[in-house]
Specification:
This is 3-hydroxyacyl-CoA dehydrogenase family protein. The chain is α/β, with parallel strands linked by helices. The protein has 11 helices and 8 strands. A hairpin with a 3-residue loop joins strand 6 (142-149) and strand 7. The N and C termini lie far apart (54 Å).
């Protein structure tokens, strides 16, 4: 039987969203989907990470909804059971570390447990969803859905896995703005999609001028703030994402584009090796 993945907001308003992964982005994604009065089921293996995510959402969601001017705080349910997280979900968003050895077996589990009409989306920062489709029986239900850093930065990259149902993509293009995030569709497969590919180049050159001793992180950030009116520069933003995540992403790019400068990854590795991961560890390029 052919499954239709075409939806409207009214079709899904009373059904939960499953977010798989409760890290820096996972908890923010969960908050956005909890901003229309509905239910989000947030999964992680570690209870302490779920507790941190729940505390973040409880503290940030009411103010975000009030500032945005529409919606209402919904329910966030945290669980260490993947089956419970997937129960009755209309949408499953995976947001786990940027490593295929983690993502691939997880997607096999998701495919085995999720309902047959659930839409699948990976929040991968660089991998095309095609690379996660091997264990998914119906490849037309999977796509890339990469969030920037909501609620501050609310653009979303959408991209097909090469087989994604057209109705699914059109539905997400229409539905996601109801949650205060705004999708843009890549017209062909691209590592890094649209925004993340451009942002990767900015990060890479920013890291290069620091690695070469041309500038300090605060110099680069200061110039971005003055020239472009940014609230945070590239190094502050990398600290928010997590330097371990930034390094994983750069390693992925380097596998596909081996000509990329190694000094960028070497600099990141110095910080990660010293346990300086950014905001989440209390120190990265800056101290917190």
């Amino acid at each position: 039987m052919t499954v239709s993945y075409t939806r409207t907001f009214s079709d899904i308003a009373d059904r939960p969203v499953a977010v798989i992964g409760a890290g820096t982005l996972g908890r923010r994604i969960a908050m956005m989907f909890a901003s229309r009065g509905g239910r989000v089921q947030l999964y992680a293996r570690r209870s302490e990470q779920l507790a941190e995510a729940a505390e973040y959402v409880a503290g940030a969601l009411p103010a975000m909804v009030q500032r945005r001017g529409f919606g209402e705080p919904g329910d966030l349910v945290t669980t260490t059971s993947l089956d419970d997280a997937l129960a009755d979900a209309w949408l499953v968003v995976e947001s786990v570390p940027e490593r295929l050895e983690i993502k691939l077996p997880l997607w096999e589990q998701i495919d085995a447990s999720a309902g047959p009409e659930a839409i699948f989306a990976t929040n991968s920062s660089s991998f095309p969803s095609r690379m996660m489709a091997a264990s998914i029986r119906d490849k037309s239900r999977l796509c890339n859905m990469h969030f920037s850093m909501p609620p501050e930065y609310n653009a979303v990259d959408l991209m097909s896995d090469g087989h994604t149902d057209r109705g699914l993509l059109d539905s997400l293009l229409a539905i996601l703005p109801e949650f205060g995030v705004f999708p843009f569709e890549a017209q062909r497969e691209c590592t890094g999609f649209i925004f993340n590919r451009i942002w990767a180049a900015i990060k890479r050159e920013s890291l290069s001028v620091v690695a070469e001793g041309v500038a300090r992180p605060e110099d680069v950030d200061g110039m971005f703030k003055i020239n472009w009116g940014m609230a945070a520069g590239p190094f502050e933003l990398m600290d928010r994402v997590g330097l371990d995540v930034v390094l994983d992403i750069e390693n992925n790019y380097a596998q596909e584009f081996p000509y990329l400068p190694a000094q960028v990854r070497d600099l990141l590795q110095e910080y990660v090796g010293a346990g300086k991961l950014g905001v989440k560890s209390g120190e990265g390029f800056y101290k917190y």
